[in-house]
Each structure stands twice: as C-alpha cells, then as structure tokens.
Amino acid sequence: MTSADSPRPHTMLAAVYDTPGPAQNLRLTDEVSVPFALSDEVLVRVHASALNPIDTKTRAGRGVASGIVRYPALIGSDFAGVVVRAPYEAHPLQPGTEVYGMLPVPRVSGSYAQYVAAPSLSIAPKPDNLSFTEAAAVPLAAMTAWGALDAAEIESGQRVLIHAGAGGVGHFAVQLAALRGAHVIATGSAHNLDFLRELGAAEVIDYTARNFEDGLAPVDAVIDLIGNVHANTGSRSLGVIVEGGVIVNVPSGSWPEFAAEAEAAGVRGTHYKVSPDARVLEQITALIESDQLRVVLADTYPLERIVEAHEALEAGHTRGKIAISIP
Ligand SMILES: NC(=O)c1ccc[n+]([C@@H]2O[C@H](COP(=O)([O-])OP(=O)(O)OC[C@H]3O[C@@H](n4cnc5c(N)ncnc54)[C@H](OP(=O)(O)O)[C@@H]3O)[C@@H](O)[C@H]2O)c1
C-alpha cells in the first residue's frame, strides 16, 4: 500500500447525529475514527462535500434510515479531496491526486467528514476546471441524471419532460438531455425559467402558474424528479406521454402505485437508483472540462453550519446544489 508522507491523525472532525430527527440533531465532533481503507479502497482527505435529499431524508428517519444500524451515525455521500492512501503501488489514484466521487448511499460511513475510504470504482480524478466545492457537488446528482436518461433511452430528437429541472439532479439532467439532442421541456417556478433556458431547455413551464400538462404537446419521455409528493405530478405526467413512451420515477417513495399506473397508461415505467461508477464519472469529467456541462452552486456552507445547510435543502427550492467546505 502507498501513502502520503505526512502522518495522519487517528481521529477526525465530522458531522454526526445521535438519533433520526430534525436538522438540529446534527452536531460536530472531532472524535470520529479516521476510516481504515480496506482492499481496493482509497483513503481521501476530504476538502468539500455536498448535500443530497437522501441525506436529509435519512437524517429525518426516512430515506435509507432503516439501513443504519449504529448511532451516532455519519452522513453524506458526495466528496472532493486529495488521495492520501492508494490500495497498491501501481494504482492510478496515487497519493496527492485530486479526486471526487460518491460513497455508496449511507449505511455507516459519511462524507461530511475530513476523511473517507471509498472503493476505487466510485472515484475519478477531479475536473481541472472545478474547485473542490464545485467538484463535490457533481457526483451523486450528475450520475443520477446520467443514469435516469440512460434508463429512458433518450435519443436525439425526442421530446423529454424533466420535472424539477432547476434542482440538483434536474440542472444536470436538462443539460445532459440537451447534449443528447433531445427537445427538453423543463418545469420550475417563475424565478427559475431563465435559468432553465440557459441550461438548454427549449420549453419551460412555471408549474406554480398553470398545470404543466395544459397545452403541452405529447412527449416521448418524462424524467420525474418529483413523484406524487406535489400535486400528483407523477400520476399527471402519464397523461402527456405518447403510447409506448417512458417515465423514469427517480424519487420512488411518494408513488407506490407507480408501476400499475404506468402499465394502465400504456407507458413503460421504471425507477432509477444511482450507483457510484467511476466510468460514468470520467465521462462527466470530460464534459465539464470541455465546458459542455456545468455545475451550479446555490450556496457553500462551512461544515460548522451544517444544520443551516440541511434546513436550506429541505426548503425544497435549491437552484443547483449546496456544497459544504470541510476544514
Ligand atoms: N433514486 C436515486 O438514486 C436518486 C438520486 C438523487 C435524487 N433522488 C431524488 O430525486 C429528487 C430530486 O433530487 P434533487 O437533488 O434534484 O432535489 P433538489 O435539488 O432539492 O430539488 C430542488 C428543486 O426542485 C424544484 N421543485 C420543487 N417542487 C417542484 C415541483 N412541484 N415541480 C417542479 N419543480 C419543483 C425546485 O424548483 P423551484 O424552486 O423552481 O420550485 C428546486 O430547484 C429527490 O426526491 C431525491 O431524493 C433520487
């Protein structure tokens, strides 16, 4: 195994929570053990992390909370930082390499912390043109957008409706669908319509001013980032899809009847769940470095303001992403 020259501490600063509940349950402690990298894992000194709704949902006792068996629990998936320990001498991610990636969706480890141990196949070199905070905001959301478009088999010329196009996943999905040559229709509230156009949406719909389906010509696919959590957005989407078209329901929790309703509507319905995948991340890196894809940060909070950061994301109207700087 190879490691950087500087000695590493045994404990680190991290955000933890002792019991599921509101954002105020998050606290900082410097008594968390630095994770030990096993097998093909890479140890990374984290400089920035980012929030995703799975973090806030799980902290609140929903999301994947049932998979968390030990408290206090760490939290967070996204990270950007510098490799301090590689699995072996010839490994491509040697100490000193600036990287970004996502931890598998949480069981016990988390990235709101000074170190993470992550499988090699979940990490890629950081895009040269991004800061650590910008880079940390990319992996989970961009790979979700990529995977959802793949699941929908989006092709050039297709009409694609993307709900919540201004959010973390949505702002990547709009750009990536436009890059694939799709005709992108995105929903958002009035203050985000220009933003959606800048990302590449050909049509924008203010969902607060009218029903999105009113006057909308049929679409080949829907990337549903809302489900039925708001005004039956998911169910209503089935009515705008051409026969044999597809809907990808990304937040699965709010719409248990999804599969049956999609089948009844003559539509192919599928969920999508993101997995860390360095090969996808490397393709995302190439698009970012060639200025074809950008990440938008709504805010960056220092780790000590993690409670405020969670409350901001939970308000449900983040434009782009919220990043966390790690001391
Ligand atoms: N299955 C998976 O692997 C996976 C992965 C990532 C995310 N997810 C899920 O996907 C969902 C989206 O994630 P995210 O990170 O993109 O969330 P996010 O960043 O919190 O989304 C915020 C955006 O949602 C928009 N929005 C809120 N209500 C809306 C509505 N009724 N119609 C249209 N837009 C609306 C807001 O725009 P306005 O301010 O303009 O309203 C805001 O820009 C979450 O439920 C998340 O848990 C699942």
From TrEMBL:
Gene3D superfamilies given in the database record: Medium-chain alcohol dehydrogenases, catalytic domain, NAD(P)-binding Rossmann-like Domain
InterPro entries: ADH-like_N, ER, GroES-like_sf, NAD(P)-bd_dom_sf, YIM1/Zinc_Alcohol_DH_Fams
GO molecular function: oxidoreductase activity
Domain Enoyl reductase (ER): 21-324
Pfam families: ADH_N (PF08240), ADH_zinc_N_2 (PF13602)
Protein name: NADP-dependent oxidoreductase
